[in-house]
């Protein structure tokens, strides 16, 4: 019998990439599969409970990189919520010093999330659940990041 094509190839396990759409009240989370092919909405968490949530998640799942959405204005300057996000980034770095962080421009993700929900046929009642917008925004941030890195 012939040798299986895969006999000489090693599959290198990769950790997931996690995206964070940090907000004043709620934070949307999205994550890739271990092979970094698909971005999927993960959860919406109260921002004050996010660090504890991530501690638990990082124990359960291998995450090699974190992408955090940075709110910008149309002129590329920080938006009014950017200082809040920057403060979270500092807390994240102290709490998880081994996790590499990438900051991603999150302009238009909320409006794209609304459009995605409409195009996907989501009922108006479900579109008004703010946590849904946060999760989809995080997914869009992650998809854009993956595309920019050529995954």
Main sheet: strands, sense, barrel: 5 strands, mixed
Return Rg in Å: 17 Å
**Helix tally?**
5
Number of strands: 5
Flag low-confidence runs.
1-7
Shape: globular
Helices and strands, in N-to-C order? EEEHEHEHHH
What multimeric state do the chains show? single chain
Strand order of the largest sheet: 3-2-1-4-5
Distance between the termini: 35 Å
Question: DSSP strand (E) fraction?
Answer: 15-25%
The mean pLDDT is 82
Q: How would you classify the helix and strand content by structural class?
A: alpha/beta
- Roughly what percent helix? 25-40%
Note down, in words, how this protein is organized:
The chain has 151 residues and is an alpha/beta fold. 40% of the residues lie in helices and 23% in strands. The chain has five helices and five strands. Strands 3-2-1-4-5 form a five-stranded mixed β-sheet, sandwiched between helices. α3 crosses α5 (130-149).
Mind sketching the topology for me?
Blueprint: E1 16-21, E2 26-32, E3 39-46, H1 50-60, E4 63-70, H2 82-95, E5 101-105, H3 109-119, H4 124-127, H5 130-149
Parallel strand pairs: 1-4, 4-5
Antiparallel strand pairs: 1-2, 2-3
């Amino acid at each position: 019998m012939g040798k299986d094509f895969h006999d000489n190839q090693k599959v290198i396990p990769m950790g997931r990439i996690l995206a964070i759409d940090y907000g004043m009240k709620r934070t949307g989370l999205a994550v890739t599969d271990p092979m970094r092919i698909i971005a999927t909405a993960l959860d919406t968490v109260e921002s004050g409970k996010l660090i504890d949530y991530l501690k638990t998640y990082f124990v359960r799942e291998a995450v090699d990189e974190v992408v955090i959405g940075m709110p910008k204005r149309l002129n590329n300057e920080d938006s009014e919520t950017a200082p809040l996000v920057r403060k979270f980034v500092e807390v994240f770095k102290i709490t998880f010093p081994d996790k590499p962080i990438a900051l991603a421009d999150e302009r238009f993700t909320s409006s794209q999330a609304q459009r995605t929900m409409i195009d996907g046929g989501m009922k108006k009642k479900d579109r008004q659940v703010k946590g849904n917008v946060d999760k989809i925004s995080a997914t869009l941030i992650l998809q854009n990041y993956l595309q920019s890195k050529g995954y």
